């Protein structure tokens, strides 16, 4: 009798072991699947059509941190088309935020190009900001729906799209990833701190 009970107990323990092992392996597999991503190299002219398509398909959010956005001379120029993609995305309910580099010397060509883009987007009611942090914002970063990230060398300019050798990556995550969003929000908070610091300095000057 005791042997039978012992044998039954052993069978139950072994069965539980295999069941738990199976459940654990399934959970582990699902966890790994959630963390997978697809990385696509974008060399030279491959960048623009990939970004254009992704912006048109955005459903929830578009975050852009760009060192340079230089508008083209014609409405159909590639940079202008991407800017219109941002405007159209906002019209269909997508949250769009753009952060551009602001140089200390405002007469420099890069600052003038970004300022022109800033004014154009502001007139369209877009949430666009110029960086006022101490650190230079040298990013070429586009985050779409927290699932697609474009990162690399491409500024939004005729030079980057047509003239120069540039390489970037498109990373497509299988589930939302918030690391880049947090980084983008940190850039915005640095901008706000820069504003507050500037106001404090002005107030001190008035007092003195």
Can you walk me through this structure?
It is built from 6 helices and 7 strands; from the N terminus they run H-E-H-E-H-E-H-E-E-E-H-E-H. It has helices at residues 2-34, 47-57, 78-91, 109-123, 158-163, 179-207; strands at 37-43, 61-66, 95-100, 127-130, 140-144, 148-152, 167-173. Helix 2 runs parallel beside helix 3. The chain starts with a helix and ends with a helix. 25% of the residues are buried. Residues 27-33 and 194-208 have low confidence and may be disordered.
Placed side by side, the strands forming the largest sheet appear as 1-7-6-5-2-3-4
Distance between the termini: 97 Å
CA radius of gyration:
25 Å
Sum up the overall morphology in one term: globular
CATH-assigned homologous superfamily: Endonuclease Chain A
Please identify the top-level CATH class: Alpha Beta
According to DSSP, the number of beta strands is: 7
Return the average pLDDT rounded to an integer: 83
| Proportion of residues in β-strands | 15-25%
Return residue spans where pLDDT drops below 50 for at least 5 consecutive residues.
27-33, 194-208
CATH third-level topology? Endonuclease, Chain A
Number of helices: 6
Task: Using the 3D structure, state the CATH architecture.
Answer: 2-Layer Sandwich
How many domains is the backbone divided into?
1
Helix % is 40-55%
Which series of helices and strands comes N to C?
A: HEHEHEHEEEHEH
Largest sheet: 7 strands, mixed
């Amino acid at each position: 009798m005791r042997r039978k009970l012992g044998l039954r107990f052993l069978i139950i323990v072994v069965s539980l072991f295999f069941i738990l092992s199976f459940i654990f392996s399934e959970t582990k597999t699902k966890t790994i699947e959630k963390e997978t991503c697809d990385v696509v190299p974008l060399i030279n002219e491959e960048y623009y059509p990939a970004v254009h398509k992704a912006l048109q398909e955005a459903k929830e959010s578009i975050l852009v941190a760009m060192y340079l956005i230089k508008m083209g001379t014609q409405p159909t120029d590639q940079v202008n088309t991407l800017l219109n993609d941002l405007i159209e995305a906002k019209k269909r309910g997508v949250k769009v935020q753009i952060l551009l580099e602001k140089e200390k010397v405002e007469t420099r060509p890069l600052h003038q190009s970004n300022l022109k883009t800033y004014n154009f987007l502001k007139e369209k009611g877009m949430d666009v900001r110029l960086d006022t942090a101490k650190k230079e914002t040298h990013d070429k970063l586009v985050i779409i729906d927290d699932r697609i990230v474009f990162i690399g060398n491409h500024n939004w300019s005729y030079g980057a799209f047509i003239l120069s050798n540039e390489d970037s990556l498109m990373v497509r995550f299988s589930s939302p990833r918030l690391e880049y969003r947090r980084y983008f929000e940190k850039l915005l908070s640095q901008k706000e701190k820069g504003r507050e610091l500037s106001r404090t300095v002005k107030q001190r000057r008035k007092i003195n």
